[in-house]
Amino acid sequence: MHFLAQGLSGATWWQALLVGLVFTHLTIVSVTLYLHRHSAHRALDLHPALAHVFRAWLWLTTGMKTKDWTAIHRKHHAKCEQAGDPHSPVVFGIKKVFWQGAELYRAEAQNPDTLARYGHGTPDDWIERRLYSRWPQVGIVLMLFIYLALFGALGLALWAMQMVWIPFWAAGVVNGIGHYWGYRNFESPDASTNVSPWGIVIGGEELHNNHHTYPTSAKFSVKPYEFDIGWAYIRALSVFGLARARKTPPKPAFGAVRPVADADTLEALIAHRYEVMAAYAQQMRATVAAELAGLQAGCADADALRAVRRWLHRDDAQVPPQHQAQVQQVRAQHPRLAQMHAMREELRQLWSHSARSREQLAQDLHAWCQRAEASGIAALQEFSQRVRALRPVAALPSALA
């Protein structure tokens, strides 16, 4: 009876729960560091021994195969929010992805074309072929016996918690909520959102919009108030030579304001376009606030502007259909907002027109800055000067780089 109650460890219920939570967190760390940042995106180099520890732990706690997970995730990025995306709420609906995300994953894992096209570069050694991929369920059963041996009957509940943690949080929350609800730092060409600025519960995967903006970055946090616990682990592991980040989010560099926006300015603008457009969004939000301050409280115009203010700085494709007519009406009533929106779209064309030469695009950028500074709109004038101060990192003095 004592063995059934407490197992070999003799742990109390709270001690057993603490161990279960640590084990579950190790699984989250294995998914985000090994499967996601290392295997799928090659953003992180891991020591071979540590990579194998993660692989073995995932075999024990999830039964997931590295090739399957990697291929499905790469396909998600390649087909994001389009037909063929394995788990997009835009395609399947939020309810299906949230509650049946694990089923969508398992269905896509049966697609040989997905594995062949997107699963390259994943482990194909003896132990992968003979154990991990051949007998994925054996690890899960073995982990059940380990829990039962350590904690008795309570071990069954802890094992069940570990089994549902990844399907719920990774498949349901990240793949579902992370493309449906939350805040966006950047206008990435998809519906990705940051679920929370503090990436702890899912190892940093909460910062999903940041990841979709910079998918090859090993670091998911970009703002001072954001925290990516996965990045904290990477920094700690790098001290011991066990991990090395290959890439992190780029940071815009600034120098003196140039009299003319030239080809170097264009190069820096395109390289940092997501950060630049995020800064433009801030200027638009400030302009909306100024417009609201100039309106009489309670008037219909103020109510209409307040109702759509969250969409005025977004890409047109990201505005929900039910708000599009209201957005157009507000722009018609507020010439400054209409001009800022029109010039925002013109700015986006600088990295969308592949047919124009570098020299032509640089001339377009110079003309854009001239019109912005002649607009009489303080936000546009300030932003134009910020653009003319952009520098490619290589062009900066070492003290500024």
UniProtKB/TrEMBL annotation:
Tree of life domain: Bacteria
Localization (cell): Membrane
InterPro entries cross-referenced by the UniProt entry: Acyl-CoA_DS, FA_desaturase_dom, Transposase_DDE
Tagged with keyword Transmembrane: yes
Membrane topology value: Multi-pass membrane protein
TM regions (residue ranges): 12-35, 138-160
Single GO cellular component term: membrane
GO BP, one annotated term: fatty acid metabolic process
UniProt keywords, alphabetically: Fatty acid metabolism, Iron, Lipid metabolism, Membrane, Oxidoreductase, Transmembrane, Transmembrane helix
Domain Fatty acid desaturase span(s) in chain numbering: 13-221
UniProt-listed CDD domains: Delta9-FADS-like
Record GO terms (molecular function): oxidoreductase activity, acting on paired donors, with oxidation of a pair of donors resulting in the reduction of molecular oxygen to two molecules of water
Short name of any one Pfam family annotated for the protein: FA_desaturase
Ranges where the Transposase IS204/IS1001/IS1096/IS1165 DDE domain occurs: 279-389
Family of the protein in this entry: Belongs to the fatty acid desaturase type 2 family.
Protein name stated in the entry: Fatty-acid desaturase
Record organism: Serpentinimonas raichei
